[in-house]
Amino acid sequence: MEQLIPRFIKRRSLLFYLLSDIVLFIVYSLTARMGLEFDAVSGFATLVWPPTGIALVAILLLGYRAWPPIALGAYFVNASAGAPVLVAAGIALGNTLEAFIGAFLLHKVVRIGYSLDRLKDVIGLVVFAALGSTLVSATVGTTSLLIGGIITFLSYVPTWIAWWVGNMLGNLVIAPFLLVWSQQLTLPTTFRRVAEAFLALGVLTGISFLVFREFFGMVPRAYPVTYLVFPPMVWIAYRFHQRVVVTATLILAVVAVWSTVIGYGPFAMPDLSQSLLFLQIFVAVVTVTSLLFSAIGSERRQAAEKLRESEERYRTLVKTLPDPVVLTDLEANIIMANEQAFKLFGDKKPESVLGRNAFDFIAPEDQRRARRSLVTTMTKGSIKNVEYTVIDQRKRRKPVDVSASVIRHKTGEPQAVLAVVRDVTQRKKIEHQKDDFLALVSHELKTPVTSAKLFTEFLQEHYEEQGEREISQYFARLDMQMNRLMRIIQNLLDVSRFPSKMTYHRERIPLNTLIAETVGELQIISPNHTLDIVSLPTLYVRGDKDRIKQVLTNLITNAIRYSPGTGRIVIGAQKKAPFVTVWVQDFGIGISQENQQKIFRQYYQVKTGEKKKRVGLGLGLYITREIIKRHEGTIWVESSKGKGSTFYFTLPLYKAKPVR
Ligand code: ADP
């Protein structure tokens, strides 16, 4: 926002103020004197009154303190034109108030920018200064004349109108010219534009002379061809900033007024003030239209520039992102991509990527999943971290991690999809190394732990038979710890095999028998809990028996482990063709809403705050979910904290057509 008083003026010395006041007084008085020459209505209300514009700009640029030269100028000029002291004082008061109020409104309400390149600035200037503040001066001035006995009631209205229109033109033609030119000149960009500006102004001047001065008498008198000024005016307003526009309107106004005064042009009538009234209304209309037009143009240019800048910024951002970014239409056709994407998909060549369909780059085994993900993205708005294998231009396979979101129209209609495709080859490599290491360690551990367990069992039985109950009890406890150790090792082994290396033997399994068997075994080793089978129809599922047993064991063991003290665990199964749903319900500690999604992640354990209670590695549910997924089933949990949890999973019924 430009300030009321530009800084360069604010810092000036007293001498500067004094000089500026003197200059203002002289300029104001001279233009005022000149204004009164133009056949002023009732001697004082003139239709050409530049002082109004000068006073407004003086207050805007120099501050409210610039009022004395204005008041003095107005007083002396009117007094010297024959106004009695009080009348001249009244007129001076009106003129000063006018500038004061105009500047105040422009500053406070409009927060005007002096280059007038916003629509708001122009509208503000027209409404508050040209139309509004001039009412004050016209009313105070004309009323002073009336009170002073210089005019009668009858001539009040025409005097008032002339006063108002004259002042209005001051604010429409002179004020914008001074304001805009008071702003620092940002040099025009090219010689061509300067040349064009001069040409346009030349054409306008020519046409103004043609229309108003009848081309120095060369054209037959006073054809009403004033509209001819519009084309050059539109040219100027459309192509240039206000600096050229205000210059053009000043040229037009000067030529028009001067010609009319000396009796030329379509507005020339025997009565000069009458002619000037209509002329000035015409000039006002042309001026306002041009100023508005140019401001709209400037705003549009600025908006376009901002848009270009933001697009440029956005482009740079996408370009410098370390990850490949791809923009596709709703059918996954690639519209835009950054260099990293060209590198990832196609030999760094844009043409090998742009215009192609994103699915062309996805490995056959991932196609279905990828298409489903696109649907999910469209419905949910975004997806995060979905892994696929892509096949690039040179048929190289690369693991990637994709996050995508939908870009929408203002109306909410989906328009495009933006995807960040991260190459995770390195990460996968490290994961494989870690898995290999885990597999190796757990495999190596398995053998000694298995034999240690065998010895433990043997020793336990041995002491039992010997009647050494106490020692046998110790070995029983040791055996329990061995079981836990075995389970942890087994889990680690399983995890290290996921997702590719785990093998499954698909067969027809009587689920009811398998559940009954597993529950039976777990009941023996957990005497403190009652494992209750509530519903168990005879069912056959398709799957790997050991793996499904592992799932049941994991869920029931968790149910027991996380419901200390409360004794009942409920197990059930229900057919819902083509699936069966199995559930394991406990009445234990429950799981908070926040943790319900997380517990299926690798190594995730709910923090209880009691370190001792940590058992296992947080792998059980992850493995369980992987196994269920492999069986084309789903697993989920319903739980409320403190009340218990129910884990559900589904398996395809044997009779059902296998999904794959
Ligand atoms: P862990 O080996 O730690 O049991 P899991 O993957 O089996 O690992 O379980 C992950 C976390 O889920 C556990 O740390 C536990 O906090 C929570 N959890 C699992 N089952 C239950 C349950 N039935 N009730 C309450 N919390 C459970």
Overview of this protein structure:
The protein has 20 helices and twelve strands. The relative contact order is 0.05. It is 58% helix and 13% strand. The protein is elongated and about 140 Å long. It is an alpha+beta fold and 660 residues long. It binds adenosine-5'-diphosphate (ADP). Adenosine-5'-diphosphate binds at residues 558-559, 562, 586, 588-591, 599, 604-606, 616-622, 645.
* Global Rg: 45 Å
Largest sheet: 5 strands, antiparallel
Count of DSSP strands: 12
Assign a percent range to the helix content. Answer: 55-70%
Q: What portion of the residues fall into strands of 2 or more residues? A: 5-15%
Named once each, the bound ligands are: adenosine-5'-diphosphate
Average pLDDT, all residues: 88
Structural class: alpha+beta
| Order of adjacent strands in the largest pleated sheet | 2-1-5-4-3
Low-confidence parts? none
Count of DSSP-assigned helices:
20
Q: Which descriptor suits the 3D outline?
A: elongated
Distance separating the two termini: 68 Å
Please outline what is shown here.
This protein has 660 residues and is α+β, with helices and mostly antiparallel strands. 58% of the residues lie in helices and 13% in strands. The chain has helices at residues 7-10, 14-37, 51-62, 67-80, 85-110, 119-147, 156-182, 191-212, 214-217, 230-239, 242-261, 272-320, 339-345, 367-380, 425-465, 469-497, 511-525, 545-561, 593-598, 620-630, and strands at residues 325-328, 334-337, 382-391, 397-408, 414-423, 507-510, 530-535, 540-543, 568-576, 579-586, 635-640, 644-652.
